[in-house]
Sequence to fold (240 residues):
Amino acid sequence: MLVTGGGKRLGAAVCRRLHAAGANLMLHYRASAGEARLLQAELNHLRADSVALIQADLLDHSKLPSLVEQTVNRFGQLDALVNNASSFFPTPVGEITAADWEDLIGTNLRAPLFLSQAAAPVLKKTQGAIVNITDIHADRPLKNYVIYSVAKAGLVGLTRSLARELAPDVRVNAVAPGPILWPDEEQFDELARQRIISHTPLRREGVPEDVAKAVHFLLADASYVTGETINVDGGRHVAI
Fold:
């Protein structure tokens, strides 16, 4: 399995869950080399030679097919692709730049498309699956995050379109997290966080394992599910 952005945060939780279920992993990272190496060591200690690392900037379109090629070369096949890597930062109207567009669309939409295209031939051989990590703000845009919201909405559309294009051999689904991990850059102060939680029906934050369980379900236990997005958000999508 190939997991993008697998070195930390939600990606690391997904890697641990899939590895515990017996998967061999190609763990992609861009800048979080330290976290990625620590996670690789942790998982390889549990099962030798089961996790390999690959570094790449997903904005470099020319490098994307090689992620798939190196995964197949390392493990002999590819059963699943998890498009988890993501950029996230505000882009209020009036301050949006072309560079913002390239970054947010590039990581959240373009890279999943071209990685999925590169992976499709080998996934068809294994009757494999793709899971995209979207966001509840794909349907309910987050104020001041115009490009991010647009990119995630596009990723939901891509999920549905690829589910049709790659059927019947490859299933394509998505998981849309809600208030589970807050951004590293501290865009949300404590008051903003509590306001979000108070408007979430389950009245609490989720944990990364909640997302990891949903990803594992879609890959391993949802053989008649494709084109679907599972909201893992404590019900927030119905209360925004």
The chain has a mean pLDDT of 92. Residues 2-238 form a domain with the Rossmann fold fold (CATH 3.40.50.720). Residues 98-126 form the longest helix (29 residues).
